[in-house]
């Protein structure tokens, strides 16, 4: 702690890198020959509520009738704790599974007093709060009869396939994690047709049960429904997902103005047009503002027209005094927003010179923008200047 006198009438106390035990009631006393005065304040130091897995779930092996417990430990305080068995959420009212939680120590557990064969399953717990979520999974093996006969387990998915969108030409990677004994054989399908290994298609199954499919240099024809089927002597199970292969123009992206607003002027009663061009996926919504307030589009004196291909035109048919000021155009979609602004003035007493007479520095109204193209395809790069 570093007390400091800033000036004859100002004092401060600085605490660098505050810790939990710095939380306390602080008192300052000022005094001189005439007397003294004091002031107090309370400091609370709060620990950031970020969830982190300290100890995850571990697989358990038990004989039928024996108890078992899954336990884990986290830091941070979750708003919700959900347990799952083979992907289905476990109801807290289910008497077979006893759920225990201790937010103070960060310890959480699921217990079974007397196991049965159907308890052989993949279990998972998900902790979540406003900062994000963490999860952990494990498998319970409940043996019935002779140990060797009970070791065989039908495939179960600890982590199933997930839907994904990728850009054309990139590498598609699908992953899932499977628990089974013995290790299952896998078959991958795309739109109902079995995939075979090739120079573009690679399949792997790791010892921990992680199955991976990679498709290099993706094409539009690679899009569709993908499925993996895991089979062993005890049974068969599948998982599926949707894959989208999008061109660069189809990939989700925030709005970006290609042609922004330009400052201009007009006399009272004249017609004024303001044009912009914006890119973004999905298609952005457009609104115009004047001095920070949305311009009402009445489709009579003031209209806003979608000119297609990202071009928009705001038209004021009869300019009034209140139309002058700072114009702003705002484009928004679910991936973000962009804006541009310009000044709209009333034409002065002198006749404005043509731009060609005045001279002006060059500028881009359509600049270069990043592109990706599949190997071997033609590529065009263009820009527009003025």
From TrEMBL:
Domain of life: Eukaryota
Protein name from the UniProt record: Ig-like domain-containing protein
Organism field: Panagrolaimus sp. PS1159
């Amino acid at each position: 702690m570093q007390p400091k006198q800033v000036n004859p009438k100002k004092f401060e106390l600085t605490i660098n890198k505050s810790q939990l035990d710095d939380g306390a009631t602080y008192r300052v006393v000022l005094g001189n020959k005439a007397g003294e005065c004091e002031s107090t304040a309370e400091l609370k130091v709060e620990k950031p509520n970020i969830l982190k897995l300290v100890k995850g779930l571990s697989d358990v092996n038990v004989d039928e009738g024996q108890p078992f417990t899954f336990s884990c430990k986290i830091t941070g305080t979750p708003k919700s704790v959900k347990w799952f068995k083979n992907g289905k959420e476990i109801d807290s009212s289910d008497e077979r599974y006893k759920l225990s939680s201790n937010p103070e120590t960060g310890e959480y557990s699921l217990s079974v007093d007397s196991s049965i064969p159907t308890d052989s399953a993949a279990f998972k717990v998900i902790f979540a709060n406003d900062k994000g979520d963490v999860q952990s999974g494990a498998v319970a093996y409940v043996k019935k009869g002779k140990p060797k006969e009970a070791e065989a387990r039908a495939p179960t998915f600890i982590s199933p396939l997930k839907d994904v969108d990728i850009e054309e030409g990139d590498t598609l990677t699908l992953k899932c994690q499977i628990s089974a004994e013995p290790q299952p054989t896998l078959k991958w399908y795309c739109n109902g047709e079995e995939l075979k290994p090739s120079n573009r298609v690679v399949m792997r199954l790791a010892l921990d049960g992680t199955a991976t499919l990679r498709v290099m240099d993706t094409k539009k024809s690679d899009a569709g429904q993908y499925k993996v089927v895991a089979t062993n002597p005890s049974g068969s199970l599948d998982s599926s997902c949707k894959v989208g292969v999008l061109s660069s123009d189809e990939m989700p992206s925030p709005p970006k103005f290609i042609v922004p607003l330009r400052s201009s002027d007009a006399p009272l009663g004249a017609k004024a047009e303001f044009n912009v061009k914006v890119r973004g996926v999905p298609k952005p919504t457009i609104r115009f503002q004047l001095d920070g307030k949305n311009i009402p589009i009445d489709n009579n004196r003031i209209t806003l027209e979608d000119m297609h291909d990202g071009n928009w035109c705001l038209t004021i048919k009869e300019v009034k005094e209140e139309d002058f000021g700072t114009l702003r155009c705002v484009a928004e979609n679910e991936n973000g927003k962009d804006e541009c602004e310009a000044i709209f003035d009333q034409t002065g007493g002198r006749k404005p010179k043509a731009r060609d007479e005045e001279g002006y520095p060059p500028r881009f109204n359509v600049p270069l923008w990043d592109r990706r193209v599949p190997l071997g395809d033609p590529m065009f790069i263009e820009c527009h200047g003025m």
